[in-house]
Design goal:
The chain is α/β, with parallel strands linked by helices. It is built from 17 helices and 15 strands.
Length: 492
């Protein structure tokens, strides 16, 4: 095996196709000395299967394995059977630093027990763009200092339990209206504004965060040609030299359209490493992973990536793995952590407008989407039947589903006196038809809080659709709970 390929293999993170480590994948990992794997929902069945898979990965990758996942909370979780963490914006609405720290610690306990040592969280993006299609409730809020304080408390909790955090998406994805999974966004602001807003959380976190994930976004003020992931001016000039950041820099997934459709996976990986990244997230197919390793190995052989730079990157990755080793533990705190998460969801609950509760046993109508699908980042929302069953614990529920909000005629609902709930169970904002014509008695904004701004009705905002969030809704409807959360973004 070529030594340069084995060096290249240590600089990438891959994904797997299934729920077991097959012989071909194990051989690929070993032959190329790959030590970074990111697992997703499709790799997970239950705790027993997942613990077995991560055990097999550790055996294949060695003692410095970095086994990662996105367990942010809210809609972005991969292990869905462990206690469901409130989203970042839910914690922003609760506005309690000890709660944020406790939630971060509880998340870490659960994923460490499953064999992970690296969590791609918390999000430091400041969501000041109501039309952001990919951040929204993943952000702790819009105020740079308070959002950072909450995120750092969350991170402190995770580190106390031995799971490394990776803050994202440097230098800020909050003020975009394009999803970089699908296209290349641009944030075109003066440097002074970037420093006061987007950059501020990352700069404050830099002395404490063991890792940062890059954003596939162009910031013309700093680099008009390349997105941050591939910009030496941003990764080396700003982050390493100006801010003196010492931790690991890992790219966001290089198979996202913002990168893959413009540069090609192998070429982009070399450019990202040359710009200052330490590890390239070479997700996608085995062919893409092979292309990436071959391109990096060729750059090492050609001297495009110097031996000194490669050694420095490998050293930072080794330090991360040694500081946060893959050492699974028994999960004895699960019951207490479920209670903690439920309390967090309850404390986040936010009312907008003059919301009223139907009486127990009342006849109500639930208007909700027919389908719930993953957007590729988040897990799928709560199905209509599950939400109807939840509300059915309190009311006589008639459920009406729609396929397309822009063609659904609100006037076709029977005028029979039923109290009408609209439940928002997807991330996308409503279009002009729904905004102009839909008039529920109460809007249950169960995912993207900005949807509450689209519909002219009182709203109950949860910042997420996990089971304990639905329980909090029922507790409020039953008069057992007051909604004391305060939205951490403008407009509410």
């Amino acid at each position: 095996m070529n030594d340069s390929r084995q060096l290249a293999g240590q600089l990438i993170m891959v994904r797997l196709a299934g729920t077991e480590l097959d012989a071909a994948s194990a051989a690929f990992l070993k032959a190329n000395r790959v030590r970074g794997v990111c697992l997703f929902r499709q790799n997970m069945v239950d705790a027993e299967q997942l613990a077995r898979l991560t055990f097999e990965l550790r055996a294949a990758m060695g003692p410095e394995a970095l086994i990662a996942l996105d367990q942010e909370g809210g809609a972005v979780v991969r292990s869905t059977w462990v206690p469901a963490p409130p989203s970042a914006m839910a914690l922003g609405a609760a506005d309690d630093l000890p709660l944020a720290r406790d939630v971060g610690a509880a998340v870490a306990r659960a994923v460490k027990a499953l064999g992970f040592n690296w969590n791609f969280a918390p999000v430091l993006d400041l969501n000041n763009n109501p039309h952001n299609p990919v951040i929204a409730e993943r952000s702790f809020g819009a105020d740079p200092r308070r959002a950072t304080e909450l995120a750092m408390a969350w991170m402190e909790g995770s580190h106390s339990e031995g799971v490394a955090c990776c803050v994202k998406h440097f230098p800020g994805h909050g003020d975009t209206s394009v999803d970089s999974h699908r296209d290349l966004p641009t944030v075109d602001k003066p440097l002074a504004e970037l420093e006061q807003f987007e950059f501020a959380p990352f700069r404050m976190a830099a002395p404490h965060a063991p890792a940062m994930m890059t954003a596939h976004i162009v910031y013309p003020t700093l680099d008009a040609k390349f997105p941050a992931t591939m910009s030496r001016r941003i990764l080396t000039g700003l982050l390493r030299e100006e801010w003196d950041y010492r931790g690991v820099i890992i790219t966001d997934a290089m198979d996202m359209h913002a990168i893959a459709h413009r540069y090609g996976a192998g070429h982009a990986a070399v450019m990202a490493l040359a710009a200052g990244a330490d590890m390239v997230m070479a997700l996608g197919t085995p062919d893409i992973q092979e292309e990436t390793i071959a391109a990096i190995a060729a750059a090492i052989d050609a001297g495009t990536l110097s031996a000194q730079d490669v050694a420095a990157r490998l050293q930072r990755l080794s330090e991360l793995a040694r500081r946060y080793p893959c050492q699974p533990r028994a999960y004895l705190e699960e019951a207490g952590d479920r209670a903690l998460m439920a309390d967090g969801w309850r404390r986040a609950l936010t009312v907008r407008g003059d919301a009223c509760r139907p009486a127990a046993g009342a006849k109500v109508r639930l208007v909700v989407r027919q389908d719930v699908v993953s957007d590729g980042v988040s897990e799928a929302g709560v199905p209509a039947a599950a939400l109807a069953a939840s509300l059915g614990r309190l009311y006589d529920v008639d459920t009406v589903t729609y396929r397309d909000a822009e063609t659904f005629d609100w006037n076709t609902l029977p005028a029979d006196g039923r109290f009408t709930f609209l439940a928002s169970t997807a991330r996308l904002r409503y279009g002009p038809h729904a905004r102009a014509n839909w008039h529920p008695d109460l809007h249950l904004a169960l995912w993207n809080p900005y949807q509450a701004l689209d519909i002219d009705a009182p709203a109950l905002i949860t910042y997420g659709f996990a089971a304990p969030a639905l329980d909090a809704v029922n507790a409020w409807l039953a008069g057992e709970l007051e909604a004391r959360g305060c939205s951490p973004v403008a407009g509410f």
